[in-house]
TrEMBL record:
<comment type="similarity">
    <text>Belongs to the short-chain dehydrogenases/reductases (SDR) family.</text>
</comment>
<protein>
    <submittedName>
        <fullName>3-oxoacyl-[acyl-carrier protein] reductase</fullName>
        <ecNumber>1.1.1.100</ecNumber>
    </submittedName>
</protein>
<dbReference type="InterPro" id="IPR036291">
    <property type="entry name" value="NAD(P)-bd_dom_sf"/>
</dbReference>
<dbReference type="Pfam" id="PF13561">
    <property type="entry name" value="adh_short_C2"/>
</dbReference>
<dbReference type="InterPro" id="IPR002347">
    <property type="entry name" value="SDR_fam"/>
</dbReference>
<dbReference type="GO" id="GO:0004316">
    <property type="term" value="F:3-oxoacyl-[acyl-carrier-protein] reductase (NADPH) activity"/>
</dbReference>
<keyword id="KW-0560">Oxidoreductase</keyword>
<dbReference type="InterPro" id="IPR020904">
    <property type="entry name" value="Sc_DH/Rdtase_CS"/>
</dbReference>
């Protein structure tokens, strides 16, 4: 069923991983999708092709979400192509390990600039484009905001910040009929987790043991929950953190 037919969504960081999974699910539900990417134009364009091959409508747009001028261009180009905006998914994020033992200021600023500043810049810019009917903003957080892995403390703290922003912006934007929710995956198999070396590692086996449903998540698992949060079925939900983790906390 196409519950989101004719809506327009901008998904940040959709060249791969969870963002691409959300884009594909949205397209199945009738959404016209903008897939933002930073460096991976090949991944973004391949996902656009896959969506088009299944009868969906999508475009790929480059833009570094941690830079205000690039964010402005991203939303303007979205408006120029599709003429409206209904859904923003703040998905783009980085998660370099950054333990106290080998702390890197460069990685610290890259993590907060992408994960927190990028979220704020995109949310601020989206307000120029949502119609009087309102909209839905979905912020990707993580189970690590409540149960951090030690060397991921900086990353986990950015997700804690995202959850506070979610609650605050839900209140700030309610009068404009804009709902803001946080979506917290557990461990999901993506290019990002492959790069970290987590897939098929001892850590992977440990995650499977700790997850009641017994496996690592897939981007499609998260896409379905994002589609629910974006839909009118979630009209009475704002300011919440929804966990999608197979029971892992
Ligand atoms: P991923 O496979 O590493 O993909 C990250 C995406 O973010 C890519 O499309 C990348 O674009 C984009 N990106 C990074 N920096 C950007 C920037 N400055 N501007 C625009 N785009 C940027 O990551 P993932 O595993 O799918 O994670 C996606 C989100 O889910 C993140 O917020 C992450 O924290 C969250 N999450 C992931 C997991 C997990 O286990 N995978 C669990 C919980 C939460 P380019 O490749 O084009 O540069």
């Amino acid at each position: 069923m196409e519950k989101l037919k004719n809506k327009v969504a901008l998904i940040t960081g959709a060249s791969k991983g969870i963002g691409a999974g959300i884009a594909k699910e949205f397209a199945l539900q009738g959404v016209r999708v903008v897939l933002n990417y930073n460096q991976d134009s090949i991944g973004a364009n391949e996902t656009v092709k896959e969506i088009e091959n299944h009868g969906g409508e999508a475009i790929a747009l480059q833009g570094d979400i941690s830079k205000a001028d690039e964010v402005e261009r991203l939303f303007l180009e979205t408006q120029n192509v599709f003429g409206r905006l209904d859904i923003l998914v703040n998905n783009a994020g980085v998660f370099p390990p950054n333990s106290l033992g080998s702390f890197s200021e460069i990685d610290f600023y890259r993590t907060i600039n992408t994960n927190i500043l990028g979220n704020i810049l995109c949310t601020k810019e989206s307000l120029k484009y949502f119609s009087a009917l309102g909209g839905s903003i979905i912020n990707l957080t993580s189970v690590q905001s409540k149960n951090p892995i030690p060397e991921m403390a900086v990353y986990a703290s950015t997700k804690g910040a995202i959850e506070v922003l979610t609650m605050a912006y839900a209140k700030e934007l309610a009068a404009k009929n804009i709902r803001v929710n946080a979506l917290a995956p557990g461990a999901v198999e993506t290019e990002g987790t492959h790069t970290r070396g987590w897939f098929k590692s001892d850590f992977h086996k440990q995650i499977e043991r700790m997850t009641p449903l017994g496996r690592m998540g897939q981007p499609a698992d998260i896409g379905k929950v994002a589609a629910f949060l974006a839909s009118d079925d979630a009209l009475w939900i704002t300011g919440e953190r929804i966990t999608a983790s197979g029971g892992l906390h």
